[in-house]
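Researcher: Here's the sequence for the chain we discussed earlier.
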Amino acid sequence: MWNAGGVWAQIRPTAFVLALAIGAGVLAGTGPVTSAGDDIRLVQFNLCGHVCRDDDADKVGGVVNSLAGFHPMAVSLNELCRPQLAAVLDGISRRGWAMHSRFLVTERGGCRGGVDYGIAVLTRTTIVDADPVTYAAQNHVGTTELRGLLCAKAELGSRPTRICTSHVVAADEDPSGDIRREQVAAAARWVAAYRVPVVVMGDFNLRPTDRAMSALYTRSHRGGGNGIFEEVDQGSEHCRCGEHTYDSGGKYDYIFVSAHDFVVAEGDATASRFSDHDLLRGWVITR
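Model: Thanks. This is the structure I predict for it:
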């Protein structure tokens, strides 16, 4: 657990040695030298960019401060208006942490002023290409938003990696949960087909213990699973759990990494004053 000033307040005991090494690098402003591999920092954040009516400059400034202070190698942003993405990119570049991006439009004209609304992937290294996917299962009642998955190809830890983001349909639009489960299953099938390391981040609008999330978690987790991923806030016991990331309680935001390619060190949900979601940070090591 990190506080707003970047000071470590709590560390899970069994992750102490590995996490301490990473923490020292963060506090020093540089990544640690480890024998296991590269230190990778990741961020997932649902900005509530078109619903929470905060001042855009304040919202963008908060995101810029978080990213420029943490130095992530890859970022997933959800509920994002296209101009907000441009402002975030400009802000972090001015702070010395320039990143590349891809944007997936999920609703044309969905933000104030008729600008596009969607999700984005940001990477520190150049994005080679990107796969935009629109889920077949959608809620077509009372909304024009089409949920999807965006996977960018870029180097992460000195090797080609697919870095993906998704924002699954919300519970109030899917009372039975059937659409959410189909969307998560579709995302799991898609990313499992990649022949490179994979990072999947996003707001899945489901608790970790929901049966749909089994498509992502590996079977080594307490509660099982049939996927290929570890999650940054799973703890030393590989639980399907983590700090809540939503104002009303509950974990809905995730940072998954392919278990064959990464070792999870730590995850931390940090409260935000300009969104109804917390910003989720993850630390992983390449295998």
